[in-house]
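Annex B, item 7. Sequence and structure tokens for protein A, then protein B.
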Amino acid sequence: MDILETKGVNSLYDPNNHYGTTPVKSASNGKSFASIFDAAMNMVDETNTLQNKADAEEIRFALGLAENTHDMAIAQSKAQIALQYTVAVRDKFIQAYQQIMQMQV
């Protein structure tokens, strides 16, 4: 998921609508909350897959089926970076939610 996809969240509501109740799709990028949510869920699935591959490489190495430690290190690094990225995106979503909840209407 490209982090720039979350940029469209601010443009979901029409600023000319004084009541702020009519959600509109941004004409500039065409992103909706559903597409951003789907991208985030795909990122979580990909992170889970990378974690599972790293675990499988550890087991293969422990059983003596793999002699190359580089494959295990690469799988672990990919899983760690994906997890860090997922946590960073989650933190931004939580921060945005908290800001929205603090808005006064």
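Protein B:
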Amino acid sequence: MGARKRIKADARKEANKSIAFAKLNNSPIAPRKMRLVADLVRGEEVNKALNILQHNAKEASNSLEKLLRSAIANWEQKNEDKNIEEETLYVKEIQVGSAGMLKRIQPAPQGRAHRIRKRSNHVTIVVDGKDAE
């Protein structure tokens, strides 16, 4: 690793120490389906977001709810001096990116075969607090 790359990597690591986030890698749900649910909670207050995810019928909402709870726990861990009741936590950022694909074959008429791509995704949630003043 070159010097510039190392300096940039160290700066990125220092920036990540100050924010509370949670990552879910290789979730077996298609990124497009996960983004539909992620768009519902982006920018919302945490309790409202958890309520939305609990009452959503989509399968992706179960994974996102668990991930959001993890991000909240990470925020509590990093901000031990702050009280969660006094802070208004909100979903600052949520990113859904594509991960690897499982490539499968589906039989088709006349001896042919169709390619089936089973997509998966990576999700990152960043939680931040606003002072309730």
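Comment on protein B: The longest strand covers residues 87-107.
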